Amino acid sequence: MKNFLVPVGNSKDSYETLQYAVDFASHFDAMIYVMEVLNVSTRAGDLANTSEKFLASSRERIRELISKIDTKSVTLKAATYTGDLIDGLKELDAELGIDLIIIAPRSVEVDEELYLGSTSGSVIKRTDIPTLIVPKGAQFKPYKKILTAFKSGVLKRNRILNPLIDIKKEFSSKISLLLVKTPGYTDEDLKINTALMDISSDVTLTEHAKTYLGVLEQLKEHKPDLLCVFRRKRGFFSALWEKNRILKSEFSVRIPVLVLSVKKD
């Protein structure tokens, strides 16, 4: 993992997520692109001049944000984009190849009942880039214990595991697998990908009405530093990903969550 991206909004706590990203990236000799998205609405004749002012202002805000953190030896670059956030992410990914997006669960939403706000939810739902969700106020520490949860052990492409493999190598992490049997499971779902088995230390099989209930149970048992899940049509959160905002009553954890998704060829 060499190129990380951190979208920042107007939240006064954006520097916390950025500091976490820097602390994490320093272990991988990675570069961080700090991205702010601007929505410029103006008359056609004034567009060029207005956009220039917005871009200059955005770069200044990013510089101020960076000045609040310890950048260590990590290189940070501003990546301002005018338009839709997801379009900007996809364009930057196509140009540079983004290995990981690091976001907070919520950007500007103040609704305490939300785990995942609409902006962060859109990033996960509408892109195929692996994403690390960092809880508010979290301080980075090496992931020694990782719980990887799923309701089907079938993976079409092994490369979906690359971020997880890189993390395991860097921190000598112990990876525990959790296969949650939910209503309607098939025998095929119980077959676990060999590459996933190769990087794991143990496997737990449990049965619940919803995958999340099985995860809650095992979070208490394993006490992991990181929860890893897959975003796919029949994967963990398959129903939740149909919308952008996720309530805490539907899902909530106090540890970072790594969401793995296959990039399109």
Low-confidence stretches: 40-44
The whole-angstrom Rg is 19 Å
CATH topology heading of the largest domain: Rossmann fold
Structural class: alpha/beta
CATH class of the largest domain: Alpha Beta
Q: Strand sequence of the main sheet, in spatial order?
A: 3-2-1-4-6-12-10-7-8-9
How many distinct folded domains? 2
Total helices: the number is 7
What is the end-to-end distance?
18 Å
> How would you name the CATH homologous superfamily of the largest domain?
HUPs
Task: Please name the CATH architecture of the largest domain.
Answer: 3-Layer(aba) Sandwich
User: What general form does the structure show?
Assistant: globular
Q: Give the biggest sheet.
A: 10 strands, mixed
Short characterization:
The protein has 265 residues and is of the alpha/beta class. The chain has helices at 14-25, 47-67, 85-96, 118-126, 162-171, 194-198, 211-222; strands at 3-7, 31-38, 76-82, 100-103, 114-116, 131-133, 145-150, 174-181, 202-207, 226-230, 246-247, 257-260. It folds into 2 domains: 3-133, HUPs (Rossmann fold, 3-Layer(aba) Sandwich); 145-260, 3-Layer(aba) Sandwich (Rossmann fold).
Describe this protein's structure.
By secondary structure, the protein is α/β, with parallel strands linked by helices. The protein folds into two domains: about 5-135, 3-Layer(aba) Sandwich (Rossmann fold); about 145-260, Rossmann fold. It is built from seven helices and twelve strands. The strands form two sheets. The protein has a ten-stranded mixed β-sheet with strand order 3-2-1-4-6-12-10-7-8-9, sandwiched between helices. A two-stranded antiparallel ribbon has the order 5-11.
